[in-house]
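Replying to the earlier thread about multi-chain prediction with a worked example.

Input:
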Amino acid sequence: MKGCYHIHTYGCQMNVHESEKLAGILEAKGFSVCDEPSSADIIVMNTCCVRETAESKVLGHLGRLKSVKKAGAVLIVCGCMTQQDGAAEKLAVRCGFVDIIIGTYNQYLLGEYIDAFLVSGKRIIDVWASERPVREASASRAENVNAWLNIMYGCNNFCTYCIVPYVRGRERCRSVDDILSDAEDLLSAGYKQITLLGQNVNSYRYKDVDFVGLLKRLEFDKKYRLKFMTSHPKDFSFALADRIAESKVLSRNLHLPVQAGSDRVLAAMNRHYTRDEYLKKINYVRSVVPDIGLSSDVMVGFPTETEDEFCETLDLVRKVKYNNLFMFIYSKRSGTPAAEMPQLDYKTKQARIDRLIKAQFEISKEIADGFAGQIFEVLVAEKKGDICFGKAQNDAAISFESKDASVGDFVNIKVVSAKNANLIGEVVR
Ligand code: SAH
Ligand code: SF4
Ligand code: F3S
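Result:
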């Protein structure tokens, strides 16, 4: 054994899975995982830059690592933050104690970069300007129930607020055969859930197979749960809603980020759908999958958003009644078109998010109360003593007590109490 590594991950599921691939590379080189950065020989910071808060967290953490990292340890910063124009150079000046800075496109070469650094002792800064054909690294997976599976990389949508297309490059879809063979391997290895990953899975296409076609091919005759994220409303089709309704394996939940409730703001965001089109899709999916769990991302304080336009978002959220809502204050990302638009002041944005959070809190509570007495199939993801934690088909988190149930089991649970939206259930005998 050569020593140990510690990876710190920021950002979305895409990054979580990429860190598993980085772990795979390090383990193939003989390093083992350790919990404490202070005892690690290799420290990796896999970064995010989707909002300013994500970047501040990374910089704060890096500052602390300076005194924590042991002599001779190699500190690597990679991911979306370093992939931004000029960001790696700025970071290199600000944090002289970072040894290797790479971007998102060359992460699969982490092993080679470490070797080169250990030989020369010279700091490496290498961020590629654009993507090259994807090379998959095999992952050391951190979970044992759910496995993440990339079906595509990058994004072509250029929503005007978003940095992702600039740091992840254009859309590249993996071949159907590669995806199917990965999925079969994961199920043989005992995973009970597979989550397909992509910035916009609805636009998946490989030769003549589209996303619905891919989902049909993943309909294996085996008990497992299939999820996917994220869906873009403009590409969400009625055919996909029908597939969810017909499928034996697809989870009955849908994350369909609406971002805003006003047509003018949606157009300024370059989202390519109207409020009405979005609501029609939601109504359709509910008509064919009545028990579907819906979730969404919503942003407040987009440049030029008026009070009335914010109220349209609030109204949409109240109409749809999402099971789960991720709420963000717009954050200015340099290099994106929205950064050039007139910005709202912090106080206005903060007041709007507070109102939205309050509205959603009531909705979540009302939905959770409605679950009392209902029976769900829960996939157990964690067990502490006799208490099991897992998720239902509609993605609701439920805990229950059981001596017999194990992690990875599907168990029928009746919800008995819904305190503060925490669902507690009991095993149905
Ligand atoms: N590809 C996915 C996820 C993108 S990032 C999608 O399109 O849904 C996840 C969420 O972060 C977005 O849905 C959006 O709500 C939020 N987000 C992106 N850029 C942002 C910004 N500049 N400020 C605040 N929130 C942002
Ligand atoms: Fe960003 Fe829009 Fe692409 Fe999502 S679809 S990653 S919000 S540009
Ligand atoms: Fe994900 Fe953050 Fe990058 S949200 S794609 S890790 S900018």
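The chain is about 35% helix and 25% strand.

Feel free to reuse this layout for your own posts.
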